[in-house]
Structure formats: C-alpha cells, structure tokens
Write a sequence for this structure.
C-alpha cells in the first residue's frame, strides 16, 4: 500500500515544526523577544500573545512539543482543509495567550506549544468522531481526565515535566482544550448553516 500523499495541511505541520526547531536553536534562553512577557504586552507588544506559543524552555521542552505536533498533524489533520487548520492554530494560540495573560498573573512570562496542542487534540477527536466514535470518545475522556487531574490539589508534575527549568502552566492546557471545543462548535454551526442554505 502506498503511503498517503503529502497535503497542504501536512506541509503546514512540517513548516511549523521546522520554525519551532529554528527558533529553539537560535532563540535566546533569557529575555526571549518572542515569549509572552506580560509587561511587554502592556507596552504594546501584543504579538507576544501568539508568539509565546512558538518558543520553549530548552531542548526537552521543544522536543516534547515537536513530537506531539508531528503526531497530531499526521493523525488528525493530514487531509484537513488548510484554511481550517490554519484558523484552528491561530485561534488556539490566541486563546492560550489571552488565557495565560488574563488568568495567570502569577506567571510573568510564558513559553510553549502544549496549550495549543491540547486544542488541536480536542478538535481532532471531535472532527473525526463519527468515523471512530469509540476510539475518539475514549481519547476525549482521557484528555478530560488529564485536565481534571491537573486542576486538582493532588496534581504533581510528571518526570518529563520535571525536566523543565520552570513550573508547567497547566492552565494553558485547559485554555487550549476549551479553544478546541469552541472552534468545533463554530465549525459545526457553519457546516449546519451551509447545509440548510443549500437545501
């Protein structure tokens, strides 16, 4: 069986992965010009709400998110519309940035793609739910369970997360997951509206 041919959405995933890798290699570890720095945002550097998702705290952080992005892009978005996929990435990135900015004033700076990845995963499960309802339902339950655990008093960082030089902003995962649900609802609403308009 021949492997699936690369699609525009696949190239977007690959391009984003390459951009993350380049930024990881050449970005400054301290006072990163792309990190979400709330003081800089107040001064008008609003793009940091998005660009903070693209930079990371070291190699381990980068590789974890890079691997998750490649798997997620291949499994869920290989045949997705380029516009839909791009819109989801931007929407989730903005929701995570605004969520951390408004909801977590205890963090002066923020970096990482993990929040956006939660948005991609949740939307991906919802998008293909009809094809494999049992698998996708189980996947969604696992994500929900993970989010509930992260918000509980019993939460402790995993061994991999402890490799990071900073605490994990678990609320960013919640913001990303919610953005995936909201985007899915918007997508379903548009789909229903178009279907009714044509009939």
């Amino acid at each position: 069986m021949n492997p699936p041919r690369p699609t525009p959405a696949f190239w977007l995933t690959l391009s984003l992965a390459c951009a993350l890798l380049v930024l990881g290699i050449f970005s400054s570890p301290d006072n990163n010009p792309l990190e979400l720095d709330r003081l800089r945002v107040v001064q008008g550097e609003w793009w940091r709400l998005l660009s903070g998702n693209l930079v990371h705290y070291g190699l381990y952080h980068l590789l974890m998110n890079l691997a998750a992005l490649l798997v997620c892009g291949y499994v869920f978005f290989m045949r997705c519309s380029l516009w839909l996929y791009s819109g989801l990435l931007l929407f989730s990135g903005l929701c995570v940035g605004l969520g951390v900015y408004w909801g977590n004033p205890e963090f002066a700076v923020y970096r990482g793609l993990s929040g956006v990845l939660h948005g991609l995963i949740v939307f991906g499960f919802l998008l293909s739910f009809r094809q494999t309802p049992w698998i996708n339902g189980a996947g969604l339950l696992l994500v929900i369970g993970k989010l509930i655990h992260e918000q509980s008093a019993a939460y402790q960082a995993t061994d991999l997360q402890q490799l990071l030089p900073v605490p994990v902003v678990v609320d960013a995962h919640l913001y990303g997951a919610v953005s995936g649900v909201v985007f899915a609802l918007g997508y379903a609403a548009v789909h229903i509206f178009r279907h009714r308009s044509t009939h």
Summary: The domain at 8-198 is CATH 1.20.1540.10 (Rhomboid-like fold). The mean pLDDT is 91. The helical segments are 8-26, 38-42, 48-51, 58-76, 82-103, 114-127, 133-151, 170-198.
